[in-house]
């Protein structure tokens, strides 16, 4: 189960970096929460295009830089992946955090 969870998050990151809305949609729950550093959230799969538009505007890419950690609890698997956040030409260390439920990404955010 954990291997599948990690694989799902890797596919999500690849689809985000490729700006592939169709691939992202296949990986998320209908009620996905896409959270920002500021604490706001976009709710629902219909908001994926807004996430992609923001990624394009900020020229953001996520590059994994180590092994993921996983935690299970209350029907949710949390996967935290260490990443380099590339914004324009700057690089920030961070973590991509995913919560998975029923085989889909239910929540996603990046911490820097």
Question: What would you say this structure looks like, in words?
Answer:
The chain contains three helices and seven strands, in the order ααββαβββββ. It is α+β, with helices and mostly antiparallel strands. Strands 1, 2, 3, 4, 5, 6 and 7 form a seven-stranded mixed β-sheet that branches. A hairpin with a 5-residue loop joins strand 1 (28-35) and strand 2.
From the structure above, extract its key features.
single chain; 112 residues; alpha+beta; 7-stranded mixed sheet; 7 strands; 31% helix; 47% strand; globular
Question: Could you give a short description of this structure?
Answer:
The protein is built from 3 helices and 7 strands; from the N terminus they run H-H-E-E-H-E-E-E-E-E. The protein is of the alpha+beta class and 112 residues long.
Write the layout of secondary structure elements.
Elements: H1 2-18, H2 21-27, E1 28-35, E2 41-43, H3 48-58, E3 60-64, E4 69-73, E5 76-87, E6 90-101, E7 104-111
Parallel strand pairs: 1-7
Antiparallel strand pairs: 1-2, 3-5, 4-5, 5-6, 6-7
Roughly what fraction of the amino acids lie in strands? Answer: over 45%
Helix proportion of residues, in percent? 25-40%
What class do helices, strands and sheet pairing give? alpha+beta
Distance between the termini: 28 Å
- Compressed to H and E, one letter per element, the order equals HHEEHEEEEE
What is the molecular shape? globular
Given as residue ranges, the uncertain stretches (5+ residues, pLDDT < 50) are none
Summarize model confidence as the mean pLDDT: 95
For the sheet with most strands, the description reads: 7 strands, mixed
Helical stretch count?
3
Number of strands: 7
């Amino acid at each position: 189960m954990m291997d599948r969870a990690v694989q799902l998050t890797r596919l999500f990151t690849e689809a985000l970096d490729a700006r592939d809305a169709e691939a992202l949609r296949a990986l998320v729950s209908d009620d996905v929460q896409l959270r920002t550093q500021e604490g706001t959230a976009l709710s629902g799969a219909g908001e994926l295009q807004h996430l992609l538009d923001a990624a394009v505007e900020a020229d953001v890419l996520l590059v994994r830089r180590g092994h993921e950690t996983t935690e299970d609890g209350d029907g949710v698997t949390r996967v935290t992946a260490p990443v380099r956040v590339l914004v324009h030409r700057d690089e920030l260390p961070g973590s991509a955090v995913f919560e998975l439920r029923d085989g889909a990404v239910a929540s996603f955010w990046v911490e820097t």
